[in-house]
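thought: fold this chain, then report.
action: predict
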Amino acid sequence: MEDYQDTDSTEPVEFPVDGILDLHTFHPKEVKDLLPDYLFLCREKGILEVRVIHGKGAGILRETVHSILKRLPEVISFRLAGEDAGSWGATLVVLRPLG
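observation:
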């Protein structure tokens, strides 16, 4: 992925755009910009099925992710992952292709 600035350090963080976004490594306030940007990069690479790992916890991050996904026109659908893909600790997203 493009460089993404970590708010706690001056070094950019690089990670692969492979259809799996693990939000555990990011600050919750970064998710509002990070998620749409990551989904756009996935679409550019032709990755139209994405797994967003938000963890189980109290569900606050999951609710934030779902709220963002509901507003994005490029999202066809999303649902909680099955037992084999993280259960309610991950969300599976289906994206529209570019163009």
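thought: worth noting. The CA atoms of residues 81 and 95 lie 15 Å apart.
final: tokens above.
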